[in-house]
Structures are given as structure tokens and as C-alpha cells.
Amino acid sequence: MLLTLQGSMQRCFWTLLLLTLTLTLLLLVCRLHADMEMLTPLLGGQTEGPPVTNIMFLKTHKTASSTVLNILYRFAEAHNLSVALPAGARFHLGYPWLFLTRYVEGVRQDGPQRHFNIMCNHLRFNLPEVQKVMPNDTLYFSILRNPVFQLESSFTYYRHYAPAFRAAPSLDAFLAAPHAYYNETLDLRNACARNHMWFDLGFDPNAPAEEGYVRARLAEAERRFPLVLIAEHFDESMVLLRRRLRWRLDDVVSFKVNSRSPGTVTRLTPEGQERAKRWCALDWRLYRHFNRTFWAALRAELGPRRLRAEVEGLRARRRELAALCLQDSAPKNRTEITDLRLQPFQSGQADIMGYNLRPGLDNEMLRMCQRMVMPELQYMAHLYALQFPEKPPKVIPFLKQSPSG
């Protein structure tokens, strides 16, 4: 009897020990898997599956969209992808008119339609026309910014272009009595003065913000754009974009392009900010809606711990490339930029910043660094020359010469 009891106890002991070891091993495997997933972006790896190469980016205005465009241009050039570029001497795809295929270089109106891999230049969204030049499996995405700050940036940048802004002595004065300056009949020229992002989506910027109308348009936008990024959370946006596109880390690392000097940024009073939200009520609803979907996607796809790790991996790589590429880590104003080919276009009262590259870079590093800091107009002209060598090159007026790559 005693021997039987001892034998049973030994069997129980070994069974418990085996279960404990098995459970410990499973926990270690799970932890290793989680750590490897978090380490993946630091190693420059990409998510499973082939990279997405058919992309339509709705480039909204004053939303960090020029930096996103630089990322897409670099990827297109590196992988020999076709880009839907503005036809002839144009620098946009028909904006502010609704997009038509005739605004794209290389599209024939009297024959079979040509498809492109990437579309990312400024246009006013018009889905039926966009679908004529983009493949059926195209991924559509865009980016939004808090309309208070988007409007402030637009006021500075388009001060000498929009009639509503030209007449106003200041943004605060404009917001205190916007109808004294804003004329709905000039909606195309005043597109930047009210609900600019709503306008870019192809919607009516002067429509009443009635609940039924707003909900219908938001649902329409969400159906067409399964991914909408948020400018205030740019690094988190790049993490999410990299996952959806299945790209490598270096594909989405960037330096700020087309940013303003701090001295040209106006700080609205709290009252002014509330007035901006009321004046741009459609943009405010748009932003709030997609800010919620953006964070819901991040929570569902990554979770807080992994998101922090991937964001830090992105920032660390940016710091590394800045040290390799840039003469100074901070952007420079136009008078400090030594290479005229890297000088950005200036508009309104904005002081648009650029970069100086470190001297002595070898050819391969110089080429990579130049692409990362190349201003939007110069890069578009460079891609145009590559895609359409038989066409006259685009001439950038403020440079007084056609750019070379």
C-alpha cells in the first residue's frame, strides 16, 4: 500500500514538472515571437507578402502631404514604377478643377487608356476619371490635418492668391467676419479659404453641415479611402502606411519637405481656434471622423507596445540618415541653401525651408540623400524627364532652368 502511494506521488510530481516545463517553454516562445515582431522594423524588414505598387494618394493641401509625395516618388523611382504626372508644362493634375484624365501626361483621349502605378500629385478627387488611369487593385489613401492649423498654414501660404485672404488684414480678422471677405461665387479661387480638405475630396465646401449630408459624405470617403493618415501623428502614420503597403522601413523614412520656418507660423487665440472650427465645420467633422478610424486601426493592428517600438525604430533610422546626409540636422531657410537645385518654391508669406547636404558623400549616398531632400517641383520634373525623355523637360520658373537628376 505504501509503495503504491509513493509511486502515485512520484507520477504526480513528474506530471506537474512536465506541465510546468511545457508552460514555461510556451511562454518563452510567445515572448520571443513578440520580441522578434517588435524588432522587425528595427532590422528594416517588411511585413509578409509582396509590396503594394498600385497606389492612389489624394494629396491634400498643407497637411504634410509633400513629405508623403517624396516617399512615393522615391519608391517609384527605385522600383521603376510609372507615375501619373501632370501633362505638358503643368505642375498639378488640373487643380482646382475636378480631375480629368486629359490632365495626365501620356494618356490618349482617342485610344485605349493607359494605367499607371502611382498617382500622387495635387488634384481634386473625381473617382470615375481616376479609375480610368489606375488599376483595379489600387490602394487609395490620403492624409488630413487639424483644420485649425491647416487653415492657418493656408492663410500664410496662399495669402497673395486667394481673394478672401488678400482682403483680410490678418487671419484673426478674417475669422471674426469671414463673410466680409469670402465670396462663394469665387469658390475655385477661394478653395483654400474654407473646408479645403473637403474640397480636395471633391465635395462642396459651402454645403450646410447638416447631419444627414455629412454622414453620407463621410461614409463615401471611408469606402473609397480605407487608409487616412493624420498629419499631427506623422510617425505613427508612417508605421501604419508601411504595414498596409508591405514596404521596408527605409521606404517610409523621410525628412520634412515643404515645411515653414517657425517665424512664419501664426498662433491663433483660443477664440480664433473655435471660430476656425465653426468656419471649417465640414473639415472639422472630416478630421474628427478619420482621427478616430486612424487610432482604431493602430490599436487593432499593432497595439500600444508594438506601436511605440516601431515608431522609435522609424525615428532612430531618421536620425541615422540625417547624420549621414545632412550638413546640419535642422532645415535651413532659402538664403542658407547652397545648392540652387535644392531650393524649395516660396509662396505667400511662408518661408519654406530646405536642406544642405554633407560634402564629400560618395555617388551612391549622394544620390539617395538628394532624393530625400529634393523639393516637390524639382522631383516631379526629374521623374517627368525619366518617364518622357522624348518630351520637352519641365522648366521650373523660379530656377530659370530645367532640373537635372
Automatic annotation (TrEMBL):
It is found in: Golgi apparatus membrane. GO terms for biological process: glycolipid biosynthetic process; glycoprotein biosynthetic process. It is a single-pass type II membrane protein. Belongs to the galactose-3-O-sulfotransferase family. It comes from Pipistrellus kuhlii (Kuhl's pipistrelle). GO terms for molecular function: galactosylceramide sulfotransferase activity. PANTHER family: GALACTOSE-3-O-SULFOTRANSFERASE (PTHR14647), GALACTOSE-3-O-SULFOTRANSFERASE 2 (PTHR14647:SF55). This is Galactose-3-O-sulfotransferase 2. Signal peptide: none annotated.
